[in-house]
Design brief:
Elements lengths: L1 H68 L8 E4 L4 E4 L17 H17 L6 E9 L10 H4 L1 H21 L10 E7 L19 E9 L5
Parallel strand pairs: 3-4
Antiparallel strand pairs: 1-2, 2-5, 3-5
């Protein structure tokens, strides 16, 4: 009787033990597969991150080289402001108060400045595709002191300074400098009115009736 009970216990124990071990094996296998997947995902993420960092480093290096090449702009017609990271047109253009017409006396120098800008941008050699965002900004000078017109004409000066920049663009086009024909140059015009960074102050306020030109290189795939 006792032997029969022992055999029954053994017959029950071993299948249960095998089932338990099988279940444990399945659980461990699932955990291993899941852990392996997490590891591979993490490895792929690291590879992707390293690739992006490498691409950014190459892009930064390319932009640095381009900025060094843009130093060729500096001279008679342009001056680079390292604090504001932009080029200032050195042609001492002065507009009549409230007017947007470019006077004939300034046109020869403005034409040469435009030719210089286009020539430099077209001759810079790059390892990757590059597009130049060229911003031509017109500006306006405030009236002296606390003149009420500084407030009443504030909105109008945005339009005025924009028209000044537009007239420069049209003048260039009329003389064969059509930047829109250059696939690597995107030209944008704007007007900052009485505002904007890097303005002249005090007795030099009148010098703000001028143009600012910013050249921003964009490295990478062009188009799309």
């Amino acid at each position: 009787m006792q032997d029969s009970q022992n055999r029954s216990s053994n017959d029950f124990f071993w299948p249960s033990y095998v089932d338990l071990m099988t279940s444990l094996f399945v659980v461990m296998l699932v955990l291993f597969v899941y852990s392996f997947k997490l590891f591979k995902d993490r490895e792929n993420d690291l590879k992707k991150a390293n690739g992006e960092l490498k691409a950014k480093a190459e892009e930064l290096e390319q932009i640095t080289k381009i900025r060094r090449s843009l130093q060729r702009l500096e001279g008679k017609y342009f001056r680079y402001d390292p604090n504001l990271e932009r080029h200032e047109l050195l042609v001492p253009v002065q507009f009549k108060a409230g007017q947007d017409e470019i006077q004939d006396a300034y046109k020869p120098a403005l034409l040469q400045a435009g030719r210089t800008l286009r020539s430099v941008l077209k001759t810079i050699k790059t390892e990757q595709p590059v597009r130049y965002l060229v911003i031509v900004e017109g500006m306006a000078a405030r009236y002296a002191g606390n003149d009420a017109r500084n407030q009443s004409q504030e909105q109008l000066t945005y339009q005025l300074s924009y028209r000044r920049a537009l007239n420069l663009l049209n003048f260039w086009k009329q003389n064969g400098l059509n930047f829109s024909q250059d696939s690597n140059i995107e030209l944008i015009i704007g007007g900052s009115g009485f505002y904007g960074t890097g303005r002249y102050r005090g007795a030099k306020e009148g010098n703000n009736k001028r143009f600012l030109i910013q050249v921003i290189p964009k490295v990478g795939r062009i188009g799309g």
